[in-house]
Design goal:
Elements: H1 3-9, H2 17-27, E1 35-36, H3 38-45, H4 49-62, E2 65-68, E3 71-74, H5 79-87, H6 90-94, H7 96-106, E4 109-116, E5 119-126, E6 142-144, H8 149-156, H9 160-169, H10 183-196, E7 199-202, E8 209-217, E9 223-232, H11 238-261
Antiparallel strand pairs: 1-3, 2-3, 4-5, 4-9, 5-6, 7-8, 8-9
Length: 263
């Protein structure tokens, strides 16, 4: 069991449950629920109406929620929370010029992702402006690590003992990788990714999306982040990922690794 999973099961002595409720309220909003009534939000957050109302009104007073009649929605002020995180990550700023260059050369979406527990989070991106079918990468959006190429690279480049412990403690129903349906197969696949230095996910998390990722190493055998190119299967054949995109990505990852050492 990871430290993150253990902390969820057994909170520390000074754990403040109110913080959990506030975060559940904020995270209840998404693209499909941009604005909600009190009843809708209470249901999605797992709170009763009275509790949901108190948290919503408190967040509205602080400027993080806007109320329009019976509807509530997030305000732009919530972006400050994400900005505080991103501004504290040097790689998000250093990487932008590299992402822009790769996107210009490939006409594909390019991004940087980091690992957070069993999920990856995109912290920087570049998207082509002249491609209607280019996949969209949303900063801050989370994906199951095993389902996407960037997550697989980051897991593969964990220290060996940590990677094996991760696989050993993983629930069987979390194995969402088409080619790895057992823990033994999963570990073997991660070892193969580490050996070849890249990972590909081909329509395994989202139909029509094909992606390739390489690690940005922070030490000889550990990745601090992943660089990935996300494509649409209707416009990019799989062979282009390794023959055309991979060399560009490896060069950028090596330069980013060198740049991060000096920061």
């Amino acid at each position: 069991m990871s430290a993150t999973e253990a902390s969820i099961i057994k909170p520390p002595r000074d754990f403040v449950g109110t913080v959990v409720h506030v975060m559940n309220v904020l995270r209840s909003f998404d693209a499909d629920h941009a604005q909600m009534t009190l009843s809708e939000l209470a249901k999605r957050s797992g709170l009763d109406r009275a509790g949901a109302r108190r948290y919503l009104l408190s967040l509205a007073h602080l400027g993080y929620v806007i109320q329009s009649g019976k509807l509530f929605r997030l305000s732009p002020k919530v972006l400050e929370l994400g900005f505080a995180f991103l501004s504290g990550m040097p790689i998000a700023n250093v990487a932008q010029s590299y992402l822009d260059a790769i996107t210009q050369q490939t006409s594909q979406t390019c991004a940087i992702a980091i690992l957070d527990g069993n999920e990856i989070v995109h912290v920087a991106r570049a998207m082509p402006t002249n491609r209607v079918l280019a996949p969209t990468v949303t900063l801050g959006r989370r994906f199951p690590a095993l389902s996407v190429s960037s997550g697989r690279v980051l897991l593969a480049f964990k220290p060996t003992a940590e990677r094996e412990r991760y696989v050993r403690n993983l629930a069987v129903n979390r194995l969402t990788w088409r080619t790895a349906t057992t823990k033994a197969q999963l570990n073997a696949e991660l070892v193969n990714i580490r050996r070849r230095g890249y990972a590909i996910a081909d329509q395994e998390f989202e139909d029509g999306v094909r992606a390739i990722s390489v690690p940005i190493l922070k030490s000889e055998d550990t990745a601090g982040a992943a660089l990935n190119v996300v494509t649409n299967v209707s416009t990019v054949v799989k062979k282009r990922l390794t023959e055309e995109f991979l060399p560009l990505m490896r060069q950028a990852a090596a330069e980013l690794q060198a740049a991060m050492v000096t920061i």
